[in-house]
Amino acid sequence: RKEVEQDPGPFNVPEGATVAFNCTYSNSASQSFFWYRQDCRKEPKLLMSVYSSGNEDGRFTAQLNRASQYISLLIRDSKLSDSATYLCVVNMNSGGYQKVTFGTGTKLQVIP
Amino acid sequence: DTAVSQTPKYLVTQMGNDKSIKCEQNLGHDTMYWYKQDSKKFLKIMFSYNNKELIINETVPNRFSPKSPDKAHLNLHINSLELGDSAVYFCASSPLSGRAAQYFGPGTRLLVL
């Protein structure tokens, strides 16, 4: 099983739709979780951290389910500008140091 | 501007050459990273440095040698370049090793011919 897994997509959704992505992780000792966004030919940029109680930032909601070892990202009222690849990031303890692992990303295309 | 910067942005070179990529961050972060993103878009960590000390070396060929002259700089030197080294290389930094979000540089697009 991969350390961090995401559905690569693409998810093609109409403007205004709600879309959700999941990301599963294998190490139950994982400690920190993040969602990043990467536009074509650009660097990954932090979208939001994921907290145990769940957190919201405008149209974006992130959730953590430690029991089932997954994090999710919900985007409401999708905009054309939301089209990008969404990467989940998991920090885990590996060999005595903290290791950061990126998922392979989920591609979102919002269509007019 | 406060940021993570990399030079060069593009690098086209012949197989067998040696090249370097430079990275600087002025965010005051203690930890810096090098990532490789291949044609399949998979972002894989190569190295991590914390306060100039190497803490992660992820099964990278020893043709790749990172150097951190101070905690604001992490350079990557590549010897004897191979076709498979063609990729985008991202530098990143974070305040704490692996516990906080990372901030990425714009990337260096390396093409080995």
Q: What does it look like?
A:
The complex is a heterodimer of chains A (112) and B (113). In chain A, the strands form 2 sheets. In chain A, strands 2, 4, 5, 9, 10 and 11 form a 6-stranded mixed sheet that branches. Chain A has no helices and 11 strands. The radius of gyration of chain A is 14 Å and the shape is globular. In chain A, 0% of the residues lie in helices and 58% in strands. With 112 residues, chain A is mainly beta. Chain A has strands spanning 4-6, 11-14, 19-25, 32-38, 45-50, 55-57, 60-65, 70-75, 84-94, 97-102, 106-111. Chain B is 0% helix and 56% strand. In chain B, strands 2, 4, 5, 6, 9, 10 and 11 form a 7-stranded mixed sheet that branches. A 4-stranded antiparallel sheet of chain B has the order 1-3-8-7, with no helix packed on it. At the A-B interface, strand 5, strand 9 and strand 10 of A face strand 5 and strand 10 of B.
